Amino acid sequence: MKQECPLAFVWLTWLGLPGLVLILGLSQGWLGAVFVLLVGVIAQIVYIRWFPRIARWIGYGSVADVPAELGSVATIIPRVTLYTANVCPFCPIVSRRLNELKHQIPFELEEVDVTFQPKIVRQKGLRSVPVIETDGRLLVGNVTSTQIAAFLTEAAESIG
């Protein structure tokens, strides 16, 4: 199974839970519907927090990192954009790796949540998240620090 979140599933999550709450509220009563909403939101938060621990048991395999072993990086790394979505469990993992790499490789990082930004999704041709972009190049999915460092270094060398 690919270690990325298709944006269609992200949007279904955001539409499905409120839709379910609305249907339950109208048919069974609003108290039960509010309970379902709270349980749904808490379940999403717990899922994202615990995802690195449960990923292999739900079919995604390991999300363990492979640390980047960098010598001195003499090239200038261009601006880096990380496209994320609100309920994607891989996005915080990749964000954390990028922020840790900033201490070894200086670059400017911008994080853009595309959950409710269809214009950016269309412009960039995004189908899933997380996506790392630099100099028009895209790296999609959960990637290790080693893969990110290689991607950034290659992009910097192609520029300079």
What structural keywords apply?
two-stranded antiparallel ribbon; Glutaredoxin; 6 strands; 160 residues; single chain; four-stranded mixed beta sheet; alpha+beta
What would you say about this model in short?
The chain contains five helices and six strands; from the N terminus they run βααβαβαβββα.
For the CA atoms, what is the radius of gyration?
A: 18 Å
Number of helices: 5
Q: What is the second-level CATH architecture? A: 3-Layer(aba) Sandwich
Q: Any idea what the shape is?
A: elongated
Task: Write a structural description.
- By secondary structure, this protein is α+β, with helices and mostly antiparallel strands.
- It has a single domain (1-160), classed as Glutaredoxin.
- 51% of the residues lie in helices and 14% in strands.
- It has five helices and six strands.
- The chain has helices at 7-28, 30-54, 90-101, 118-124, 145-159, and strands at residues 5-6, 80-84, 109-113, 128-129, 131-134, 137-140.
- A four-stranded mixed beta sheet has the order 3-2-5-6, with helices on one face. Strands 1-4 form a two-stranded antiparallel sheet.
- It is elongated.
- The model has no long low-confidence stretch (mean pLDDT 92).
What's the helix and strand layout?
Layout: E1 5-6, H1 7-28, H2 30-54, E2 80-84, H3 90-101, E3 109-113, H4 118-124, E4 128-129, E5 131-134, E6 137-140, H5 145-159
Helix pairs in contact: 1-2
